[in-house]
Amino acid sequence: MKEEPERQEYGEYVIESFLGKGSIGKVWLARHRRFGRRVALKTVHLEHKFEDDSDRDEFYKRLQREAELCGAMQHPNIVTLYDVGYDDELVSYLATEYVDGESLLARLRRTRPLPLNEALSIAADLLRGLTYAHSKGIIHRDIKPANILLTSEGQAKIADFGVARPLHSSLTATRSLVGTPNYMSPEQVRTTPVSPRSDLFSAGVVMYEMLTGVKPFGSPDLSGILYNVVNHDPALATEVNPSVPEPLAQIVAKLLEKRPENRYGSAAEALAELDAVLREPDTALAVSSQTIASAPHDATSPLTTVNDTVEPLPPSIARRPIHAALFWIITLLLASGLGASVVLLRQLAEREKPTAEIHPTLVERTETKQRELAAAREHVRAGRYAEGITAYDTLLARHPETLIAHQERDEAKRLLEAATPKAEVTKVAKRPSTEVAEEKKEPEPEKKPSRWQRFKRWWKEGPQEPAKEKPKS
To answer: Which residue among 125, 142, 160, 199 is the active-site one?
Structure first.
């Protein structure tokens, strides 16, 4: 379905086509009426309703503050904010740099994992951009492949600071999850205060996915993802993809530490260690052994470039002339392929999911489930298997989809069965059936003699005197 803008012009910008959806609304390709410069125009269009005017005012104050901060950032690895538009003194659109390329999300959909040199070039650009943003006191809070744009030259740029926040913001924080679940830091999931190290955790998730092709905290359901982010330690990247050198895997593992203080102190520190590791002979050899062309990056970059040479073609091929008709056929085929690629990229952009803002009810539900799981495990660790099984049953009655609870309950049942002694059966000797029959036999009641028997007795013994009754006392 083709997207149509609410209006064709926003200030000095004329809408040309639909690009996708962002965290605060829709994104359009637009052109400045006088300068002719193309921009990515992000219109503010919120799908959820505010509970009251104070929430609405707070949102627009935050958006205004973030626009001011982002407008002051000028860095080759950050998408530049050119202009801010207003309607009735409220921000209505943001005009940002248009990147003629694709997102890292679209790139990963085509190739998983990425070639090592390409992944490291993108990782270095990402860390450079974060170093600059953090130096300006800005935390992005939603680093993910969809928010990393790749130019046609291979340079990476951080985009969509729509949920960014000043480091020392005085704006009231709502108790809700802000970000994208697979790339959130543990402190974001817990809805505790975040620092620049939260962005480093998200950058580590992106690097892990580029190097291995898998998400480190993936799960079929949202509650499983949030649980894994807080509790699960993924395997080293080199264990998932053996072509990843061990030192690089250790850098990613440090970025993914659960406690912020155990991560790198800054993005600059992580970038410096990445550069130092790449300068080591063994690592450089491992990287250069992959027959790929290095993605170009800034000449002032501290990141080492390896294996950027291309072998020349054999003279018999290099000097062979191309017929004019064949040249034009190839040109037309390339042009049609480029047009199809543009359409495909737009379709992929439309399918990219915007940032998730998760309701506090789900936060509370997830925290309750984690507490109940912890209580059940504590019973089992203490040897109280029956109590643990009861706790698991209570949890599963409300959350039957929790696979880990099913598995742990089965294990607790196995432990309970192993710990319970088997009941001893006392054997009783069987008594003879005749003896039992005699015990059961009861005396037969005395039968009253028949009339014939009484006559015979009278004939034989004569008449009998009746028994005298005892006198009554």
So the answer is: 142
